[in-house]
Amino acid sequence: MTTPPSPSRYDEDGYLPQACTLTARHLTDFPYREELPADLRPQLEELVRATGDGSDVITRVAGWKLGGWPTWHLTYPAVFACGDCGTDLTLLFTVASDAETGVVVGRSGDLRIFTCPADHRHPFQVDLH
Ligand SMILES: [Zn+2]
To answer: Which residues fall inside 5 Å of ion ligand 1, going by CB?
Structure first.
């Protein structure tokens, strides 16, 4: 029995998974600023000024984020509805493009997976933001 050679483009394009490790970090997450109650926005704006450059440093973090709030750094916040029951979908996880991890999604965006909190058997929604 002969093992066929692997296609060369896999090596060139980086499509083969590589061994890596996960480093879990606990973080405090907040809704995107326009989704916060108005009386809490000044405190969040101060936190953004103190910890970053004024962009979305709160919901947009390096690496993979499990759960939490979605970032809306490209569009105004929106709600995705479940195609089966109409319930508002919730964020399951985000894969973010960033220089820290070297991950690039699309054109340096974020891959987000939303799920139905009413029934996990309902279809999930993939969003490239
Ligand atoms: Zn549903």
So the answer is: 82, 84-85, 87, 116, 118, 122
Ligand 1 center from residue 31 Cα (angstroms): 22
Give the tokens for residue 27.
Answer: 């973080």
Backbone angles phi, psi at 97, to 5 degrees: -80, 135
- Kindly indicate the confidence band of residue 10, based on its pLDDT and cuts at 50, 70 and 90: low
Q: Is the pTM of this model over 0.85?
A: no
State yes or no: pLDDT of 119 exceeds 80: yes
Is residue 2, in this structure, part of any structural domain at all? no
In the chain, the number of structural domains is 1
Domain-embedded: residue 13: no
Which residue is listed with tokens 């929604």?
125
